[in-house]
Amino acid sequence: GAVVSQHPSWVICKSGTSVKIECRSLDFQATTMFWYRQFPKQSLMLMATSNEGSKATYEQGVEKDKFLINHASLTLSTLTVTSAHPEDSSFYICSARDFDSPSEKLFFGSGTQLSVL
Amino acid sequence: GQQVMQIPQYQHVQEGEDFTTYCNSSTTLSNIQWYKQRPGGHPVFLIQLVKSGEVKKQKRLTFQFGEAKKNSSLHITATQTTDVGTYFCAARPYGGSQGNLIFGKGTKLSVKP
């Protein structure tokens, strides 16, 4: 089945540094990928929609200069948390839909736990 | 913005008991999907419902989509410890973009052996 690989699984960084998270679709093309944030015991909050070859679409309240998204190829999207602060600590997870499939089901990455000290 | 209400937030059952989680939207939906997230894991797709009044079964799991396409339910018969996890509904509003889903808050199921 379709697999989405997300890396790294966890990262600890100092306040003020930037962190890059990668999301790859391993066996299908994904013109669109989605980035979410999940707080403990809460639901997935859509942050942005990553579009291959164009600018990402950010949800209301999400700072685009804070969370930089790049979708340079049909199989890779990256999320960079710039100048991270402790309040950015969270579980970040991506998902992708198989462009060639009529199904709308999403395949999720395994997530990245970010801890900012 | 649009929301999908999901209840209950938590459900504790004895193994063998049934379990149901419900999702409701104030607006008509194009389709609704269900996902399961095991503790420490990522959401995994279970099913997609598209048609009004649709009912689909997967072994002990029964999924329903309301006639008005505004609500949905997931019912598990005779729960097992392997059913433990959080179940999310994810809805695409009518006219919304494909893949851009609104997730419910999830129902966390715990099963006591």
Backbone structural class of chain A: mainly beta
Q: Using CB atoms under 8 Å apart, which protein chain pair has the greatest interface?
A: A-B, 22 and 24 residues
Number of strands of chain B: 11
Q: What's the number of helices of chain B?
A: 0
The major beta sheet of chain B can be summarized as:
6 strands, mixed
H/E element sequence of chain B:
EEEEEEEEEEE
Mean residue pLDDT of chain A: 91
Which stretches of chain B are poorly predicted, pLDDT < 50 over at least 5 residues?
none
- Give the N-to-C terminal Cα separation of chain B: 40 Å
Determine the fraction of residues in helical runs of chain A and give it as a percent range. under 10%
Shape type of chain A: globular
Strand content of chain A: over 45%
SS class of chain B: mainly beta
Low-confidence stretches of chain A: none
Largest sheet of chain A: 7 strands, mixed
State the oligomer: heterodimer
* Spatial separation of the terminal alpha carbons of chain A: 37 Å
